[in-house]
């Protein structure tokens, strides 16, 4: 097929190097564009995810006979109540904890200094100075997280309002599309399949994070760790960050256990967090989501760096959801399935899949 003498070739018929060049060029242009409008995009993305979580509830109420407008109002009120309830508790606990940070820093410094006395020092290398640097980094990290929670009110308000409007529109979406199901094109069917997978992932990922956060928070409360609800909220949010998220969220409760009960108490908290997370991530999430949604650990780490570059801290929290959204989107089109396979673990790529890339 030609247009004005220029031959148009389907991307599928191009060689593997040509595909890489085309898609990498598109990715660079898209990255630059997203980075320029990152503040707007992050707000929209968070709003979409919240709307996806709450829209099924509004549709369920409609199926149970609740009028459409009333079902939407009830769901939006529930969203506001949930955000206000946990927001007020988290902010109040964060403020209280923030006032205690200097005391915790002094206790941690004293503990590390006492520990350093048992470690030999070498010429040009001071264990005590290294320990102080570690304490400074840990305290600075905790302070940044606490300040971020306290100062997130305005952003959360904007996201809530945007999500409310999206819920209103999404609840009525089936009524707009159902009469035209028979006329859907192949592209529309692919996009519909993509939407179903996206909703499934967001709902299941949120459910697993809630299970992890609630279980750990409850166990921390039982063993007497202060601000257990705050650490639950923090664990819920940072569990979206692969590998390092839960580690960062675990530092404050481990420190509090160390100060209150000593090394044995800190070890108990570490075991609680590790066991709960391991069971949820290795048994609960795969059983609910399936192997098709798994990602290569190396690719996940690269994605973490990429989304941090594009969106900053907001991108770090969204790294797993956004990466899986990208994988689902690529799987929805025959021309890009080979890219989706590259994102998965090596053990799930057979010879047939590898050959199909070429």
Automatic annotation (TrEMBL):
Any Pfam family the entry gives: AI-2E_transport
Transmembrane intervals: 16-34, 40-58, 70-91, 149-168, 198-222, 228-249, 261-280, 300-330
Native source organism of the sequence: Methanosarcina thermophila
GO biological process, one term: transmembrane transport
Protein name according to UniProt: Predicted PurR-regulated permease PerM
Localisation per UniProt entry: Membrane
Matches recorded under PANTHER family: AI-2 TRANSPORT PROTEIN TQSA (PTHR21716:SF64), TRANSMEMBRANE PROTEIN (PTHR21716)
Chief subcellular location: membrane
GO cellular component, as recorded: membrane
């Amino acid at each position: 097929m030609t247009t004005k003498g220029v031959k148009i070739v389907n991307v599928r018929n191009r060689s593997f190097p040509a595909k890489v060049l085309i898609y990498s060029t598109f990715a660079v242009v898209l990255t630059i564009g997203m980075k320029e409008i990152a503040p707007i995009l992050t707000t929209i993305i968070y709003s979409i995810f919240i709307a996806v979580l709450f829209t099924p509830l509004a549709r369920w109420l409609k199926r149970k006979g609740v009028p459409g407008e009333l079902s939407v109002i009830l769901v939006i009120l529930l969203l506001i109540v949930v955000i206000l309830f946990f927001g007020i508790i988290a902010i109040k606990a964060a403020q209280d904890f923030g006032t205690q940070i200097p005391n915790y820093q002094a206790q941690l410094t004293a503990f590390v200094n006492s520990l350093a006395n048992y470690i030999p020092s070498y010429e040009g290398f001071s264990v005590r100075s290294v320990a102080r640097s570690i304490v400074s980094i840990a305290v600075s990290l905790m302070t940044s997280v606490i300040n971020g929670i306290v100062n997130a009110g305005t952003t959360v308000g904007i996201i809530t309002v945007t999500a409310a409007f999206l819920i209103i529109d999404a609840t009525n979406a089936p009524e707009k599309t159902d009469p035209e199901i028979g006329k859907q094109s192949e592209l529309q069917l692919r996009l519909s399949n993509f939407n179903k997978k996206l909703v499934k992932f967001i709902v299941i990922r949120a459910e697993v994070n809630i299970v992890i956060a609630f279980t750990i928070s409850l166990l921390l409360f039982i063993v007497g760790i202060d601000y257990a609800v705050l650490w639950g909220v923090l664990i819920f949010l940072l569990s979206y960050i692969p590998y390092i998220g839960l580690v960062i969220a675990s530092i404050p409760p481990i420190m509090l256990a160390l100060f209150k009960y000593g090394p044995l108490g800190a070890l108990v908290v570490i075991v609680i967090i590790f066991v709960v997370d391991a069971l949820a991530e290795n048994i609960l999430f795969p059983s609910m989501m399936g192997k098709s949604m798994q990602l290569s650990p190396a690719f996940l780490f690269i994605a973490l760096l990429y989304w941090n570059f594009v969106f900053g801290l907001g991108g770090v929290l969204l790294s797993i959801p956004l990466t899986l959204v990208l994988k689902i989107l690529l799987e929805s089109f025959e021309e890009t399935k080979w890219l989706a396979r590259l994102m998965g673990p090596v053990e799930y790529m057979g010879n047939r899949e590898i050959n199909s890339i070429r």
